[in-house]
Amino acid sequence: MAAGLPPDALGRRVACGTDYGTVRYVGSVSSTAGIWLGVEWDDPQRGKHDGSYEGTQYFKCRHPKGGSFIRPNKAHFGVDFLTAVKDRYGLNDKQDVQCGTENTVVFGTKTVEFVGMDSVAEQQRQVQLNKLVDISVRECAVSHAGQEEEISRTCTNMRHINLSKNLISSWETVVAIASQVQNLETLNVSENKMRFPSTSTFTSSAFSNLKILALNQTEITWTEVLLCAQGWPVLEELYLSSNNITVLERPGNILQTLKLLDLSDNQLLDGNQLHLIAQLPRLEQLILRNTGISSIHFPDAGFGCKTKMFPSLKRLAINDNKISQWSSINELDKLPSLRALQCNNNPFVDTEKNPETLKQLIIAKISQLEVLNNCEILPAERRGAELDYRKIFGKDWLEAGGHWNPEKNKPSEEFLAAHPRYPALCLKYGAPEEGELKGQQPLTLKNQLLTLTIKCPEKPEQKPVEKKLPESMTIQKVKGLLYRLFKIPGSDLKLSYKSSKLEGKEVELDNDLKPLQFYSIESGDCVLVRW
């Protein structure tokens, strides 16, 4: 074995310059002298071959050109945790002030020896290390825990550790570090390609207080997650982005405290995999960005009913997927607690060219949604979206057997499958009347003009004025028009409107940048002007 080469070199993570890899072979190579390391590189472009040399296969690589041989002295096997911490925070021996030679200081011609200077410096370092609460040793080549109990003696106040992108080769190393940190709450070990236990061989109390854990890009599988999770009794946030997770399993009685789960950038087999984690009782946020899912379905609940799956889920991210049917959006209304949704970059989005109409359709289909694609849904916006939806699909509703007389109202199963919220919207706003739905011709400029009555409650002597305004006209421009009409500065005007369909209610037109159609104003409505 080459001098300085660790006895457990096989399988270890190494760095060579800025490149990272895993040692797959240690030994001689034909027609060459000395010991070589066969390395499978994280970046295949760093490699030269698949582990073969002159017809002999020394090791295997996932990529046909992902491997190469290097000499042991070119490989950096890493440092222990405390060495990395001291280097990172400037607390190592090299950075102590050197006084003369050894522990002496020269005054003129007299040399004075300071007894115990080493121990004083060490005590000062100890005090500084004990003050550290939040520690980051990202990209500091940490590969092992170091001497037993040394971390627990030195860093007594640590709560949050960032160990991402180091040279950690196995989960056992993580346990060895964490077991020496009594009150560890946050741990990031992302970007460490490591081995995880394949069987539940031991239970450690290392993570008894851990609330946040990031395992992104560690090549962990869901089976391995469940094995390790037996030691995470109070975990609340788990980040598992960009791993080998394709299938899920029921967690059983573990992960019961989990509030956030990030599975983004894992190619799940299908949307039905979600059913296997649907009973996590406290899960509030689920991130499924770029997971390859094409549909979402909750088979335990019918039209207009709530599912028992994901009982606490408030925030869902399904952007950058393959969802092509609106039926999956309909299904989301079954989630009893859903309040926020991200769904950009899915094929169903392309079915509607107008982004404003697309937004209104989603809002109308999901009753409790408060935030869509990071934008808050205002009450007036929801009301407008629901009224428009009720009107747009009113003709389809009538043709499918819908009727404003409750005794005759029997819409078909096909219509309810496509528009499961429609009955609820009829209950909320009343069934659409035949007169509302007549003459829904293709939109022309004439059809887009609204005939509105303008009134000034503060000037009873002012006669109501009738105006024809484009429904695309913004509130700001309406105010400009009314300024010219009533000689009142537009900035001082406050607008609202009343509709015969909303008896006793007055809706404020409070966003100058929104068009009239945003507020679902219709011909015949009355705009009230105050200042």
Instruction: Just name the CATH architecture of the largest domain.
Output: Alpha-Beta Horseshoe
> For the report, how would you describe the main beta sheet?
11 strands, mixed
State the distance separating the first and last CA atoms.
89 Å
For the biggest β-sheet, the strand order reads 10-12-13-14-15-16-17-18-19-20-21
CATH fold-type name of the largest domain: Leucine-rich repeat, LRR (right-handed beta-alpha superhelix)
What structural class do the secondary elements suggest? alpha/beta
Q: CATH superfamily assignment of the largest domain?
A: Ribonuclease Inhibitor
The geometry reads as: elongated
Mean pLDDT: 87
Number of separate helices = 14
Strand runs, count: 26
What's the helical proportion of residues? Answer: 10-25%
Q: For the record, what CATH class of the largest domain applies? A: Alpha Beta
Count of the separate structural domains: 4
Unreliable spans are 95-118, 439-447
Radius of gyration: 33 Å
